[in-house]
Structures are given as structure tokens and as C-alpha cells.
Amino acid sequence: MQLDIVQNTDQFEALASEWNHLLEHSASHVPFLRHEYLRAWWDTLGGGEWSRGELCLVTARGEDGSLVGAAPLFFTQNREGENALLFLGSIEISDYLDVICRREDLPAFLGALLSRLTESDVPNWQVLDLYNILEDSPTLPVLSAAAGGLGWTYQQQKLQHCPY
């Protein structure tokens, strides 16, 4: 699995078709993860919810070059003033966020993702704040295991209830 960092909007835009195709087969398939939604969110930083941010999408490609995973992240200071990586769509605008990956690829993708986020070309973050993941998302237990495997602290909190 080859993981790359996407840091400009032209590269992000070029992913549109294969992004949405992967989303159709993803473990978490919600409209807030569609490329056009996240691109519009990015263009306005959530309608101004965030004053600044740096695009930091992580894409994963299989041996055949196809997109097998995407983590729609951006770098900013979180609400506590810490350097953080957050999901595009965070916090108030989007109800459900997640990584984009088929269920069977989640362990390999999330393990590779966390390792990739420690490399020098990734902004110097302190906290990975992943808001608005559905509480029954298959990502959560896999993410917990991957974080524990690296000796990282993992904490899950219920932010607020969102009706279906």
C-alpha cells in the first residue's frame, strides 16, 4: 500500500471520480464524505468555522494503482489551541465523518495511515482530533488497536447526539 499526502486543491480535485467510487464501497458511506461536499467545505473552511488550515489528505493506493483508502484531513489549531489534524467537515457543519476505505482494508489502511502521519512531510501535529464518527463505525475499534500498537493514547468521547 502506497500512502501519499495531498496538500493542494488541484490534486484534491483530480481525485473526484475515484474518491466517490471508493466511497460507494466504503465501510462508512455517508453524503458528508462525497468529494464535492468535502471540496465545498474546504473552499470555505466550513463556512468560516476555521480561520486557517492546511490541506493534509492521505491517500492509499493498492499494488494496481487504484485508490483503496483516503483520510480527508486538514491541519490547524484545534479549539484547545493544539496543533491538530482533523477531518475535513469538522466540527459543526457535518454530522458524520470517517475515513474512506472498504471494511476489509481498514486494518491495513489505518495501521499504515498512523505510521505515515509520523513522517517529516506531515505538518507537526500534536493531536489527531477525529470528530463526528458514528459510534458504530467499524473504524473506531480498528483505530484504537492501531493507536495502541504504536503506544499512542486513544480516547473516545460522545460529543453530542445526532438524530438519524
Q: What can you see in these coordinates?
A:
The protein is of the alpha+beta class. Helices cover 31% and strands 20% of the residues. The strands form two sheets. The protein has a four-stranded antiparallel β-sheet with strand order 1-3-4-7. Strands 2-5-6-8 form a four-stranded mixed β-sheet, with no helix packed on it. Strand 5 (73-77) and strand 6 form a beta hairpin.
Write the layout of secondary structure elements.
Layout (H helix, E strand, L loop, with lengths): L1 E5 L2 H6 L1 H9 L10 H14 L5 E2 L1 E5 L5 E5 L1 E5 L5 E5 L12 E2 L4 H11 L10 E3 L9 H11 L15
Parallel strand pairs: 6-8
Antiparallel strand pairs: 1-3, 2-5, 3-4, 4-7, 5-6
Helix pairs in contact: 4-5
Query: Sheet with the most strands?
Result: 4 strands, antiparallel
| Percentage of residues in helical conformation | 25-40%
> What is the H/E order?
EHHHEEEEEEHEH
Tell me the strand percentage band: 15-25%
Major sheet: order of its strands? 1-3-4-7
How many beta-strand elements? 8
Short note summarizing the structure:
This protein has helices at 9-14, 16-24, 35-48, 106-116, 139-149, and strands at residues 2-6, 54-55, 57-61, 67-71, 73-77, 83-87, 100-101, 127-129. The protein has 164 residues and is an alpha+beta fold. The model has no long low-confidence stretch (mean pLDDT 94).
Give me some keywords for this one.
164 residues; alpha+beta; 4-stranded mixed β-sheet; 5 helices; 8 strands; 20% strand
